[in-house]
Amino acid sequence: MEELQHYEDAPAPPVWPIFGDLMAGLVGVFVLILIWVVGYQVELTRSLEQETERRQVEEQRRGALEEALAGPLASGRISLSHGRIGISGSVLFALNSDQLQPEGRELLSTLVEPLQVYLGERDELLMVSGFTDSLPIQKGNLHFSDNWELSAQRALTVTRALIEEGMPAALLFASAFGEQQPVAANDNEAGRAQNRRVEIAPVPRNTASN
Hints:
- Pfam families: OmpA.
- InterPro entries: Bact_OuterMem_StrucFunc, OmpA-like, OmpA-like_sf.
- Keywords: Membrane, Transmembrane, Transmembrane helix.
- This is OmpA family protein.
- This protein has 210 residues and is of the alpha+beta class.
- It folds into 2 domains: 58 residues; 134 residues, CATH 3.30.1330.60.
- 57% of the residues lie in helices and 15% in strands.
- The chain contains 8 helices and 5 strands.
- A 5-stranded mixed β-sheet has the order 1-2-5-3-4.
- It is elongated.
- The chain starts with a helix and ends with a helix.
- The model has no long low-confidence stretch (mean pLDDT 82).
């Protein structure tokens, strides 16, 4: 009985060491969280700086292209949007045709010199892309089986015309999109006329090779 009383009267272990260990653990967790937050902020800042630099470079490219094409742009015969030179299909070709019209060839000849100057200052190529509206090829047209083929042949025609007007062949390549990637609705003639187009876009050389 006396022994039991002895244990009951024994002092409780001090709580300060336990409290100290708990606080040390909490401080450690806080430090880890703080390090993660600081690292995340540094990475976010770096990403924002890279994005700002990329946008500045893109803006400089767009400004340089606008300056190079100031004459054709002022005439209203071409458009420039997001670095892509747009030419209405009606200026270049008759409906369902890949034969370049005289007005179209004359326009292309005015683009060669400014584009050569632009490309000469950069390691870039010209991508010539053909697009059509969504209407199927008219029956009786034996030249093209579908819009893909028509857009491909038109892109090739423009590419060859640019080369004939003096653009080095090593600086161009052609691509076809058919009725894909319209810029307007295809449910009316005005929209379809906008979708029948050829675009010429400077692209980085490594983009074309991938």
